[in-house]
Structures are given as C-alpha cells and as structure tokens.
Amino acid sequence: MAFSRTALLKPIVVQSAERHTASLIFLHGSGDTGDGIKAWMRAILGKDLKFRHIRIIYPTAPLRPYTPSGGAVSCVWFDRLQISPAVPEHVETMEETCQTIGELIDQEELSGIPRNRIILGGFSMGAAAAMYYGYQYGRTLAGIFALSGFLNTESAVYETLRSNPGKTPPLHQGHGDTDELVPIEWGKATSVRLASLGVKTSFQSYPIDHEMNWKEIDALTKWVEATLPEKY
C-alpha cells in the first residue's frame, strides 16, 4: 500500500510578528499533528510560540502503518521495529521523511529564506527525524533541536559523519529525566556520540516524563533567538 508524502502534509504556520527573516520547522511526535503540537505550545506558554522575525512551520506527518502500534495507520514520520535504539533504522521510511523535509526547506528557500537561516527540530519521533535529516542532508542549516528524542545505536547518521567530517549545525537537546518511554540515557548517548563526531551539542534535563514544560520551551526559545538573531 503506497502512502503519499507532501500531498498529506498540511503545515500550520505561525507568521513572524514583524519582518520574516528566518524560519523554524517543528516536527511533532508519533500520532500527533502539526496543529496538535502548536496547541501544546499554547497550553504550556499560555499563548502561541511566536518570534518577531521567525516564521514557525508545524507540518503533519503522512499516514502510514506503524509497527509499534501493531501496524495501525497513524501520523508518523517513519516506521520502526520498536521504540529502542538497539534495533536497525527503517531506512526506507526515514528516507521518505527526508524527502518530505527537504521539500519543506525548499519551499522556505523559494520564499527568500536561505538554509543557514532555517532551524529544524522536533519532539520525540520528530526529534529523531530532525537529527537524521540534519546530519545526513541538512548540514548547512542554522541548527537542529531535539526534545525527548534519540538516534538508533547504528544510525546511518554516525557513519555519514565519520566518512564525511566537516561543518555541521549545532544541536540543542532537552529531555525529561523521568521519561519512561524514551529514557534520558538514550538522549544522552546520542548527544555524546554526535559530539564525538564534531557536532556542537548542548543537553539539558528537566524533572518531567515524556513531555515538555515551560522551562524547556523557554530554554529552546532562547537558543533559537541566539542561533537566528534578527537580521534586517
């Protein structure tokens, strides 16, 4: 059964308050939607996440069967054998997602925003997709962020960075220290591995489970503003 990619994406866009000179693409977790994570930001902050000069794009993942849910069709960026770093990556669906992300970035470039003024990130599965794309294909992006996410132990990303060292976007990570779905050790291991391969990483923990809180989003906001300063 074939599943479309970009045709199923319906990005929710929060325009910059003033002049749009940069963009942020925020990928949701498994089973969520772009509208869902935008609403989650609003619930945490008491208002929409918004920047003076940065447009935020919240895409929705395509529908596809998801093995950890017994093959049920859901909005997920990729499939996987189980939620564990110990299993092989599902390369076919990871590459499909990279094509989708690449098309979103192309659209931003067509609107006048260069790749070095674009941040890509996400929560949980969205964090994994962002890191995979960022260090495989997005090495001229301004930055990558990953909240409550991880890369598989044998991720293709690590071999790419080993065989093709050079400039990489910085990585900002946040993780709940009581996360039972994605243990913080998985996120830390990803950070250590990427740092050993030349990525500038920052890792912050929070007293939460598999979720986000105000402090985490505040830290992310400050990192985004430092990474994408206003430019006129």
Automatic annotation (TrEMBL):
Domain Phospholipase/carboxylesterase/thioesterase: residue ranges: 11-226
UniProt cross-references to InterPro entries, sorted A to Z: AB_hydrolase_fold, LYPA1-2/EST-like, PLipase/COase/thioEstase
TM spans (from-to): none
Keywords: Hydrolase
MF-aspect GO terms: carboxylic ester hydrolase activity; palmitoyl-(protein) hydrolase activity
One of the record's GO cellular component terms: cytoplasm
Record Pfam families: Abhydrolase_2 (PF02230)
UniProt-listed Enzyme Commission number(s): 3.1.2.22
First and last residue of the signal peptide: none
Family per record: Belongs to the AB hydrolase superfamily. AB hydrolase 2 family.
Protein name stated in the entry: palmitoyl-protein hydrolase
Organism: Ridgeia piscesae (Tubeworm)
